[in-house]
Amino acid sequence: MSTTAGELRDRTRELLAAHPPATTAPADFLRARFDAGLAWVHYPAGLGGLDAPRALQPVVDAELAAAGAPDNDPRRIGIGLGMAAPTILAYGTEEQKHRFLRPLWTGEEVWCQLFSEPGAGSDLAALATRAVREGDSWTVTGQKVWTSSAHLARWAILVARTDPDAPKHRGLTYFLCDMTDPGVEVRPLRQITGEAEFNEVFLDGVRIPDAHRLGAVGEGWRVAQATLMNERVSIGGGRQPREGGMIAKAAATWRERPELRTAELHQRLLDLWVDAEVARLTGERLRQQLAAGAPGPEGSGAKLVFARLNQQISALETELLGDEGLLYEDWTLRRPEYVDFTGRDAGYRYLRAKGNSIEGGTSEVLLNIVAERVLGLPAEPRTDKDVPWKDLAR
After folding, report:
1. How far is CA 235 from the centre of its chain?
2. How many CA atoms lie within 13 A of 228 on its CB side?
3. Residue 204 belongs to what H/E stretch?
4. Of 45, 61, 182, 330, which one's alpha carbon is 20 to 30 angstroms from that of 343?
5. What is the dihedral of CA 244, 250, 256, 260, to 10 degrees?
6. Collapsing DSSP states into helix, strand and coil, what is residue 132?
């Protein structure tokens, strides 16, 4: 029998009564919430959920917010929540699920993603990081790049090449990598914003137990595709209130600074406001589709729109501000815990939005995915798909 909204409210109130937020340490409350099945209600019982419909999660969230309960700071652990967790749930062993999901959700263990490489960004399947099996473990050597939160992470989802004689998509295997192990080196990458939220990661003979392999040997591309689909949904399909996110800042500037207005900027703002609202409603529909099954290629479209809107809205806001839009608050090299679009100035938003069309899949690659897998258009010719990776030109 399916769990009802009323039953979830009762269960949430029981949690609050047993662990009052005002007197319970935040970490203890989050652990208790997970154990009560109220972390992500659609997950299985015993893994932070109750096998309830995904659409009922807001019922729990609303009760907890009204009571002033702590959250798990989802911006800080977004890679774990949006990418690692659903992949571990889908492909992990029971031991892996019970070991990793609880501290991942509570935020006690931060995750990062070791996918892209200097020679394998848009063409991820061309990656060269090698994993060689030695008994019950694998030795991994290579370099990864554009790794968000690597400077904070305890664990990483990692794709490495285990069979160089196979075509590039078929010789990959997926691992869970301990970022504190010997041989892991994290270096900051300073960005156009002056900050270094991204990193490059060097793996020099890192030993990963076979027990930390996710999925079968050679099935890494299939597992990685599940991760990437979830990533694009989490980036482009996040829940927003009406006039939320980036458009809220531009609209606020328009309302508060009437002396900056022009008819041309007014029309552009109206057009972007409508686009943002359409994107918000489309994201809501995408989440409803998720409730019925796994994410599909439609998430690529949502991520495409997210990137385009962020760049256009931030450009409009900067232009609206005139000379003030040229100011930038701080060029200090910092290593932030998360990206904060709405809590910073217009200059930051304009510069940081440039990366939105690269991270989480470049817009060019996502356009191909939408064309081929959503619209059913002919695929681009791929002459290297059946060629052994070791024979490819690099």
Report:
1. 6
2. 26
3. strand 198-209
4. 61
5. -170
6. strand
Backbone angles phi, psi at 132, to 5 degrees: -115, 125
Alpha carbons 16 and 355: distance in angstroms, whole number: 41
pLDDT at 3: 84
Round to whole Å and give the CA distance between 117 and 119: 5
What is the number of helices (H) and of strands (E) in the chain?
12, 8
3-class DSSP state for residue 193? coil
Q: Which residues of the chain have pLDDT under 70?
A: 1, 232-238, 289-297
Catalytic residues: 231
Can you give the pTM of this predicted structure?
0.89
From the list 60, 85, 81, the residue with the least C-alpha distance to 6 is 60
CB atoms within 10 A of CB 255: 9
The DSSP result for 209-232, as a single string, is EGGGEESSTT-HHHHHHHHHHHHH
Residue 158's H or E segment, with its range, is strand 155-161
- Return the SS3 of 61: helix
H or E element in which residue 140 lies: strand 137-144
pLDDT in tens, 259-285: 999 999 999 999 999 999 999 888 887
